[in-house]
Write a structure and sequence with these properties.
The chain is mainly alpha-helical. It has a single domain, classed as MetI-like (MetI-like fold, Orthogonal Bundle). It has helices at 4-9, 12-19, 21-38, 40-43, 84-120, 122-136, 140-155, 157-162, 164-175, 178-191, 195-202, 207-215, 220-243, 255-263, 272-299. The chain is globular, with a radius of gyration of 23 Å. InterPro entries: BP-dependent_transpt_permease, MetI-like, MetI-like_sf, OppC_N. It is a multi-pass membrane protein. Its main location: membrane.
Length: 306
């Protein structure tokens, strides 16, 4: 009897991955990003949260290869005197935490709503999907901006800065759950009339058991694909909100807040404050999207080669 690892080695999934150079490259780059984010406290030259390490006299030092650059700061410093490489590593860490947290919240809400809408049908389906339609009728970024502004007014600017990470997870998560709900609903509608579900009903299994132990596992393929894409969207949403001043404060670096901090100095010659975090963000989102596209193609049954 073959082990799970042996089955994985012989699977079409791994076969397809090894034949796709773009997927391999994207996976390697994404792995490097994740490792840098996890190890940021150890690999970063300085802690941008520690005021002891920050000297305003070091502000706007250019990268090391420029004439006025310093070997102490490889990618230069920002307007507060923080090492750009360190703030980018910590900023990436923050953006990934927000992205993963927001997608987890989206997934929980969307999967539950989609499961019950698709399985129950009738009035419950109509009500839940109308709620999703109402949510979809507003651009999700506008919803996130509105919710962020409300939170800032409700908690105050100081409290918002301290609670910025969990609040952004909630804001971005609540603004884009219908994507999961619609995807799961469509999958459940295709699964609920199959023989294994009918058999579960015949032997008298409770509705909750049928939904979560039988239908949900067979609907997770679509969730895997959409989750990959949604992580990239959530990171971009955080960057957009921070750029507009409704996300992470400048004192707590994220990729979005770093880009926003540098925009005022871009035309004065300190271009690196915005450009480096911008490139960091673009590459990170790009590799996630490339992996998501590959995953969608591989997990699409119509493309399965056997």
């Amino acid at each position: 009897m073959r082990t799970k690892f042996q089955k994985f080695k012989a699977s079409y999934f791994l076969y397809s991955f090894k034949r796709d150079k773009v997927a391999i490259f994207s996976f390697i780059v994404l792995t490097i990003f994740l490792l840098l984010a996890v190890t940021a406290p150890w690999v970063a030259p300085m802690d941008p949260y520690d005021a002891v390490n920050i000297d305003i006299m070091n502000s706007e030092i250019p990268p090391v290869w420029m004439e006025e650059g310093s070997s102490e700061f490889l990618l230069g410093t920002d307007n507060q005197g923080r090492d750009m490489l360190s703030t980018m590593l910590y900023g990436l860490r923050t953006s990934i935490v927000i992205g993963l947290g927001a997608v987890a919240l989206q997934g929980i809400i969307g999967v539950i709503v989609g499961l019950f809408a698709g399985y129950m049908g009738g009035k419950m389906d109509a009500v839940l999907m109308r709620l999703a339609d109402i949510q979809f009728s507003f651009p999700y970024l506008m919803v996130a901006i509105l919710m962020s502004a409300i939170f800032q007014v409700a908690f105050g600017l100081g409290s918002f800065e301290r609670l910025a990470v969990p609040l952004l997870i909630v804001i971005i998560g609540l603004s884009n759950w219908p994507m999961f709900a619609r995807t799961i609903r469509a999958s459940v509608i295709g699964e609920k009339n199959k023989e294994y579900v009918e058999a579960a009903r015949v032997i008298g299994l409770p509705t909750w058991t049928i939904i979560f132990r039988h239908i949900l596992p067979n609907s997770l393929t679509s969730v895997m694909v959409i989750s990959t894409i949604q992580v990239a969207n959530a990171v971009m949403s955080e960057a957009a909100l921070s750029f507009l001043g409704l996300g992470m404060p400048v004192t707590r670096p994220s990729l979005g807040s770093l880009i926003r901090a540098g925009q005022e100095f871009f035309f004065s010659g300190s271009w690196w404050i915005t450009v480096f975090p911008g490139i960091w963000l673009v590459v990170f989102v790009l590799v996630i999207n490339l992996l998501g596209d590959w995953l969608r193609d591989v997990l699409n049954p119509k493309l399965y080669k056997g």
